[in-house]
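Changelog entry: the DNA-binding transcriptional regulator, XRE-family HTH domain record was regenerated in this release. Current contents:
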Amino acid sequence: MGNRGTLSTMTVRRSELARRRKAQGLSQEQLAEALHVDRITVYRWEAGRNEPQPYLWPKLAALLGISRSELVQLLSPQPGAFPTPPAATPLSGAQDTEHLAKALTDSARFFDGPIIGYFELQLRTYMSYDGTEGPRTALPGVLGLLRAVKDNAREVPHRVRGDLLRFGAKSAEFAGWLYRDLQETAAARFWHDRATEWAQEAGDLPFQGYVLLKR
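Regenerated structure tokens:
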């Protein structure tokens, strides 16, 4: 996956992404509604401040009327970027982004350790969001990661499945606490249960015990 764990510290306004949206007759609000995200999220994508969660890529590409590979190019860092504090953890280039796209559509062949490493970096970003902007800001990204775990856990190669489930357990435990902070106890209980299940399935008994103790 190229330079594993390397993050871009540059952002660039994605004018072509905005152009493709407008060519489809979509406002930022309409695109956000179709993807079930906030308008400010679409604005941040187009401003180059962060990138869509991977599980949104197929639907986003379809809405923009482009192929997956074309979307990868639109989301990749381009010349002329300007420095800014990163609001998310984008991949370091087109090759890495393409690897992620392949891993999420053919996990049995392409899902590997570097993909989990990328997910770990994303999770740390959302944990920082919780500390600075609150649980409601952090939650959508965490749920996106959890969906990626759920959708791929059965298909990934055996050598990485345990690591993916351990990551899923950690993410689910964090989601439970976010929901608890939002006073949504049923959702908090659901994700804490899922964290326990995934930790047990991964053979991570210490983390399973930790979740049970902290509930």
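The beta strands are 10-11, 82-83.
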